[in-house]
C-alpha cells in the first residue's frame, strides 16, 4: 500500500471517528435539552451526521455510522427504557429479537441510501434531496417495521401508521436534515477535495 493510500485511509478513519463523536454528543445534548423542551415535537437529529457521513465518506462508512446510530438507540432503550423501548431492545419489557431489526436495519439503510441519492446530482440540491430521503427512510422504515413486527403490542391500524408517519416528528426531522445536509455537504466536499 502506498503512503498516499495509507494517509487517505487514516484520514477516513479519523473523519469517521469525528462523525461518531458528533452523533454521541448530539444524542446526549438532545436528552438534556428535551428534558426542558416545552414543545411536543422532539425531532431526532442523530441521523443527520449519518446522512452527511454517507455522502462524504461513502456508503460503506455510512453503513457503519448507521450501525452506530442503531447501537445508540439499542443502548438507550436498554439502559433507560421508556414505554416504547421494546421496539429497539430485546431486553426491554415486551421486546424480542425483532427489536434488533427495528433498531439496526433502518438506521444502516439511512447510512447507505444518501450516498447513492447524492450521486444522481452532486450539488446542493442533491445533498438536500439525500438529506430529505435519508430522514424519510429512517421514519418510514422504523414505523413500518414497528407496525409489522410489534402490532400486537401497538394495536395500530394501517391508517394510524400513515398518520403517525405524517404527524410525528418526521416533518421537522426531514426539514432539518434537508437544510443541514444541503448547507454542510458542499463545504465538506470542498475541504475533502
From TrEMBL:
Keywords: Membrane, Transmembrane, Transmembrane helix. It holds the Pfam family ECF_trnsprt. The keyword Protein biosynthesis does not apply. Gene3D superfamilies: 1.10.1760.20. One of its GO terms (molecular function) is transmembrane transporter activity. The chain crosses the membrane at residues 12-30, 36-57, 64-91, 97-117, 129-150, 162-188. This is ECF transporter S component. The lineage of its organism: Bacteria, Bacillati, Bacillota, Bacilli, Lactobacillales. The keyword Transit peptide does not apply. It comes from Pseudolactococcus laudensis.
